[in-house]
Amino acid sequence: MFGAFRPTQPSMVGLLWKTPWKLSRTRKANVRSRLKQVDSVIEAVKESGVQCAALTKALELPKEHEMPPKDKYTVFSRHVRGYRKGIHKVPKWTRMTLRTNPKGF
Amino acid sequence: MLPLASLRSCASSSARAQLRAFASAAPPSSTSAAESEPLTHFRITLRRSAISLPKNIKGTLVALGLHRRLQTVYHRHTPDIAGKILTVKELVSVANVPASAVRNKLEQRLERKAPRGYVVTGSKLHAEP
């Protein structure tokens, strides 16, 4: 019943990792703080007065406070019913830019 | 002071204290010194590692001179540096600083270091009979 050899799903069937289908309140708070951190980087580069194509592209991204919750915590996926999946299903999602949706979604 | 201190021969204790003040309180001092000194440099600190990220992002960090987390480098305000920062914007934190706040690796280490030796503030031997 208990102990290291208890018959659980991961021990019985081999490779079985479960990912929660949605983010917890804490993980969502961490998402928001990361988004704000990136916003501050873009803001610092903007305040430096430098002009470059990368900056105009970065300024087109929505800021954290402009994004709807749907875009903060989910991403577009063409394979999922409803075309949205949790953003935490994307590999390396904490270090990628995933702010915008394809046109029409 | 010991002869080792001749490395920074001009660094008398007051100048050292000023340096420390710059290092510890750079954001407030940059706002107060903004009128006198123009902000000319980016201070870039690597916050997140680029492990298992694409080669172009890892290469960008190398180009910025960042090779370990929490390392800080200074670069002039130029479009190429701005583009590199924006390529790795999820991994770094950036501030604009004046030219006087720029520190190389050795200076950063000296600022981190505790001061050598000790100061005698008083003695109880001859305090009072």
Structure description:
The complex is a heterodimer of chains A (105) and B (129). With 105 residues, chain A is mostly helical. In chain A, 39% of the residues lie in helices and 6% in strands. Chain A has a two-stranded antiparallel sheet. In chain A, a hairpin with a 7-residue loop joins strand 1 and strand 2. Chain B has a single domain, classed as Ribosomal protein L30/L7 (Ribosomal Protein L30, Chain: A), CATH 3.30.1390. In chain B, 36% of the residues lie in helices and 16% in strands. In chain B, strands 2-1-3 form a 3-stranded antiparallel sheet. Chain B is elongated. At the A-B interface, helix 2 and helix 3 of A face helix 4 and strand 3 of B. Chain A: Keywords: Mitochondrion, Ribonucleoprotein, Ribosomal protein. Chain A: Component of the mitochondrial large ribosomal subunit. Chain A: GO terms for molecular function: structural constituent of ribosome. Chain A: This is Large ribosomal subunit protein mL60.
Topology pattern of chain B, helix = H, strand = E? HHEHEHEH
N-to-C CA distance of chain B = 33 Å
Rg from Cα of chain B? 20 Å
Helix percent of chain A reads 25-40%
Organism (chain A): Trametes coccinea (strain BRFM310) (Pycnoporus coccineus)
Subcellular location (chain A): Mitochondrion
Keywords (chain A): Mitochondrion, Ribonucleoprotein, Ribosomal protein
GO cellular component, one term (chain A): mitochondrial large ribosomal subunit
Brief write-up:
The complex is a heterodimer of chains A (105) and B (129). With 105 residues, chain A is mostly helical. Chain A has helices at residues 9-13, 25-47, 53-60, 69-73, and strands spanning 74-76, 84-86.
Topology at a glance:
The complex is a heterodimer of chains A (105) and B (129).
Chain A: H1 9-13, H2 25-47, H3 53-60, H4 69-73, E1 74-76, E2 84-86
Antiparallel strand pairs in A: 1-2
Chain B: H1 13-24, H2 26-32, E1 39-46, H3 55-64, E2 72-76, H4 79-87, E3 92-98, H5 105-112
Domain Large ribosomal subunit protein uL30-like ferredoxin-like fold (chain B): 42-92
Protein name (chain B): Large ribosomal subunit protein uL30m
GO cellular component, one term (chain B): mitochondrion
